[in-house]
Amino acid sequence: xxxxxxxxxxxxxxxxxxxxxxxxxxxxxxxxxxxxxxxxxxxxxxxxxxxxxxxxxxxxxxxxxxxxxxxxxxxxxxxxxxxxxxxxxxxxxxxxxxxxxxxxxxxxxxxxxxxxxxxxxxxxxxxxxxxxxxxxxxxxxxxxxxxxxxxxxxxxxxxxxxxxxxxxxxxxxxxxxxxxxxxxxxxxxxxxxxxxxxxxxxxxxxxxxxxxxxxxxxxxxxxxxxxxxxxxxxxxxxxxxxxxxxxxxxxxxxxxxxxxxxxxxxxxxxxxxxxxxxxxxxxxxxxxxxxxxxxx
Length: 296
Prior knowledge:
Blueprint: E1 5-9, H1 13-24, E2 33-38, H2 46-57, E3 65-70, H3 77-92, E4 94-99, E5 102-104, H4 108-118, E6 125-129, E7 144-147, E8 155-158, H5 159-162, H6 169-178, H7 182-186, H8 191-199, H9 206-216, E9 220-224, E10 229-231, H10 267-279, H11 281-293
């Protein structure tokens, strides 16, 4: 049985259309139930775009079933995702999560569903990631690997893992600092600074709190070495989001040939991610913060 898909949309009709169209190219789409969480307008300027998005949502076909949840008010991305993923996990036990600026590979749904099945009883595995950054030397890595860090561009989880989500960033930051784990949490970047900014109310990010929750639980995320998702939101259309091609990478159409049998963090995979985060530390962190601010 295929996992349900939760798609979170707001006020970008063209991006939403491209995301949905990429999903319908996947051969498994016709057997999937699609749940679309449409956030309400934040300002008067948003009303027309939100209405345009919702008009398009009524035309979508190509899935086993389509359910549109129209928010009357503006939840903001963080609250919308936390609320939507919680409800999906409570109802279906697991969920595949996408946002309205992601293009997925034709192998995305197969990869997600097979991985969700394979690791469903492995409590240390808390997330399946579909995205991978453009690493400098991916040929030295296996097709998939485990690492503690999570990603937010196309992912999946189970109720047993999502139950460990801690919404209180101040509590998370305190625990990481108390255990002297800031450097390990940063993994070559500066994630702890982002968590502190979340705790201070300067940004609103579900993703940094989810990563911290997984990290403190000793959890792991499965990553593909070649990305099955690409982000099209860095084109200047998003609030506080500048034009960038920094994270553009090869979108693989091939299903990863194997999954790791040992449930442990990959030394090589972690090193590759550390190298990437170090090389792009300032701009990568700024984009994460900008993305969080855009819905704050």
